[in-house]
Amino acid sequence: MDVLGNGLLRKKIVTKGQGHDSKPQRGQEVTIDLVTRLSDGTVAEESHQVVLILGDHEVAEALDMTVNLMELGEKSEIISDAKYCYGAEGKPPHIPSGENLSFIVELKNIEEGPYNTSVPVRKRLDWVDRKRATGNQLYLKKKFFEASGAYLKCTRVLQQAANQDQPEEIKAEIEMFSLKCHNNLAATRMMQEQWKEALQACQVAEKIDPKNLKTLMRKAKILSQLGELNRGISTLKIAADIDPDDLSNTGGVFQIIQKAV
């Protein structure tokens, strides 16, 4: 099968699955066995019981675009141009830059994913924790657009959980994750100079915890960048009142505002 019609992504069934109705949908959690081969046939990676959210960019794009075409129990070979794998970046140390790849994929299991509100909240929160950690790693690699996407997906799942009746301890955990994710989202927006979007993320975090220093410091800097100097200074003063002994929390932002004035 020529998946995209351009010859760059092909799918060949090795073992048939359980029928058309057993195909997974985007957003579902799938478990696959996966063997990745280089263009010369060398096995680069081999993994069993890989769990991923389909269509969530957790694996090479070639897999995201083909696993949803597979039936449960099916085993297929996916042959892909580097464009839909790891591109010019590669995946060191085993997959070099610009390498075309083939994948042997077996679809082992399908379950509902974190975007489905029928999934137990504990499982959804565990997914949020892992996805937030992925966002943090992307941020450290300066992949700010991808990190923003990870945090946004977390906030979506958290909002869905918050809209349901939950025990008090779960509500507290949802708020804790939401505060962290919105603070992190604000940081990625700032790195992309998306100041209005960064401010929106800070405002959500501030509603959860009005005294969170990280939120207030980022908000002050964002306001200064938006030209709202008086609001920035007021926010900075609130942060200083909360922690007057720790001048390192306010010094950098205060200098930014002073320069802007």
UniProtKB/TrEMBL annotation:
<dbReference type="InterPro" id="IPR046357">
    <property type="entry name" value="PPIase_dom_sf"/>
</dbReference>
<dbReference type="GO" id="GO:0005829">
    <property type="term" value="C:cytosol"/>
</dbReference>
<keyword id="KW-0802">TPR repeat</keyword>
<dbReference type="GO" id="GO:0012505">
    <property type="term" value="C:endomembrane system"/>
</dbReference>
<dbReference type="GO" id="GO:0003755">
    <property type="term" value="F:peptidyl-prolyl cis-trans isomerase activity"/>
</dbReference>
<dbReference type="InterPro" id="IPR001179">
    <property type="entry name" value="PPIase_FKBP_dom"/>
</dbReference>
<feature type="domain" description="PPIase FKBP-type">
    <location>
        <begin position="27"/>
        <end position="111"/>
    </location>
</feature>
<dbReference type="InterPro" id="IPR050754">
    <property type="entry name" value="FKBP4/5/8-like"/>
</dbReference>
<keyword id="KW-0677">Repeat</keyword>
<protein>
    <recommendedName>
        <fullName>peptidylprolyl isomerase</fullName>
        <ecNumber>5.2.1.8</ecNumber>
    </recommendedName>
</protein>
<dbReference type="GO" id="GO:0005740">
    <property type="term" value="C:mitochondrial envelope"/>
</dbReference>
<dbReference type="Pfam" id="PF00254">
    <property type="entry name" value="FKBP_C"/>
</dbReference>
<dbReference type="InterPro" id="IPR019734">
    <property type="entry name" value="TPR_rpt"/>
</dbReference>
<dbReference type="GO" id="GO:0044183">
    <property type="term" value="F:protein folding chaperone"/>
</dbReference>
<keyword id="KW-0697">Rotamase</keyword>
<dbReference type="Pfam" id="PF14559">
    <property type="entry name" value="TPR_19"/>
</dbReference>
<dbReference type="InterPro" id="IPR011990">
    <property type="entry name" value="TPR-like_helical_dom_sf"/>
</dbReference>
<keyword id="KW-0413">Isomerase</keyword>
<dbReference type="GO" id="GO:0043066">
    <property type="term" value="P:negative regulation of apoptotic process"/>
</dbReference>
<dbReference type="GO" id="GO:0016020">
    <property type="term" value="C:membrane"/>
</dbReference>
